[in-house]
Amino acid sequence: MASTYDCAVPDQRTEGLAEAAKAVRAGRLVVLPTDTVYGIGCDAFSAPAVRNLLGAKQRGPDMPVPVLVGSWSTIDGLVLGVPKAARDLIEAFWPGGLSLVLPHAPSLKWDLGSTKGTVMLRMPLHPVALELLRDVGPMAVSSANVSGQPPAASAAEALEQLGEKVAVYLDGGPSGEPVASTIVDLTGDDPRVLREGAVKAADVSEVLGREVLPA
Which ranges carry the YrdC-like domain (predicted)? Predict the structure, then answer.
């Protein structure tokens, strides 16, 4: 049976984070608040858990699952190399609404979908999410909704859509305006904005000192 914890109540937050960490390590799914919308997440390195996540969303592997991290330094072990552009953007916008697409380290044993050798990484600006990520490590996290349905802006909305497919729901209150993260592709010679969201493309260009190309 799914459990929901109100993270505004200190005791429930402590218990909920412990239960969520236990669920992630056991290969189960959790719902967590982020600074954009609520996310459904699991251990990024558990292929069965990622398949369950895609199944819960009724989505195929053609749309790879992004990875959330709890610190700047975590990225070093996940990608083939961290270019200066990535460092500059991380320093400017992490934690926050900027996702970076980079070639992942070939030694990593994960299956996030049809990534073509890349991974999309973000560090969310939400204390509950960060605490969980710092405990369990990188998590594969997608929006907490069934594909085709509106993204969940609350734990209750996520529960209504995903139900018992998720072991633990961490309720961090309403997420506010559901603004998606901005996605910047750093896999080629020239950075490209694949999606403009919480961070303006002009701000990305200013940090990099060059005009960023649209997708």
Answer: 14-199
